[in-house]
């Protein structure tokens, strides 16, 4: 075993925990029962089920200070909760600029009230309308259980290049209606449209995104029809990669904790391809993406990414939603866990059980 710690003040020597058993249990009720009975030290708790787990929390802990305080309402609760853990992933809404003409998700494929043309989202007014029409507060409250923070571009909160004071699209149904009235030569208010937004079946967060957009557009004009479609994961992924769906709720989990790993896929890489962004838009972003990764000066990178985030806002190529705040629930006899946002697994070597 380690005779020297990996970092100053880190653990060394023989680990306190000899054996770790990880069990894959898909069904939440079964996992929750194991947590309640003390048969599991920790389990994955979906956002929607956090209120259930909260009833058993005896102390709340702050990952930044590594301190815990008793839950005054239930001080003897068996669980410990580490809350407000900033995620290094985010779900957003992506609009395809040129859907395949044979797509089954654009209705008639015409501006006749029963579909949309393949290039419906190439109109900047339509894209801005989608940004104005989304009720972000409802999304955070309902889909993220109130535990989320809005982002205003590809870069996530607390990362170099994130500008909390940068521009956001407000939830503004009147602005949404005005943008749609200007789109496509002004025909939409009388003609209407119909398209589908997809999510992967079982992902209630993404389903909620579709339902919010559906409700908001329908409230503005009953001729603005959005159908929310759940697709099995293989079909969902294949359809997105083939640019067959006009709007899709999908997400990104970072590979490297650096702003380049966010701006590149969102503007010139993965999603640029799936959304079929026009070359002239990609070229604008490419210059900034390359400049941002080419310099090691933090101040220079901040300035470059501020310009990139502004361009992302102005062109409205996506609907940027909210960065979820994670939570960890564990038995109070567990000791030594700490949050490392760029390490997706658990560092058991530092842990012990009281």
Major beta sheet summary: 5 strands, mixed
Shape: globular
DSSP helix fraction: 25-40%
Count of spatially separate domains: 2
Number of strands: 12
What is the residue-averaged pLDDT?
96
Which range does the strand content fall in? Answer: 15-25%
**Strand/helix succession:** HHEEEEHHEHHEHEHEHHHHEEEE
**Helix-strand category:** alpha/beta
CATH architecture of the largest domain: Roll
Strand order of the largest sheet: 2-1-3-10-5
N-C termini distance: 22 Å
SS summary, helix count: 12
CATH superfamily of the largest domain: Dipeptide-binding Protein, Domain 3
- Unreliable segments (pLDDT under 50, ≥5 consecutive)? none
Can you walk me through this structure?
The chain has 354 residues and is of the alpha/beta class. It folds into two domains: 28-87 and 326-353, no CATH class; 93-324, Dipeptide-binding Protein, domain 3, CATH 3.10.105. It is 34% helix and 19% strand. Strands 2-1-3-10-5 form a five-stranded mixed beta sheet. Helix 3 (124-133) packs antiparallel against helix 5 (173-182) and helix 11 (279-294) runs antiparallel to helix 12 (298-315). The longest helix is centred in the last third of the chain and has 18 residues, at 298-315. The radius of gyration is 23 Å and the shape is globular. It starts with 27 loop residues before the first helix and ends with a strand.
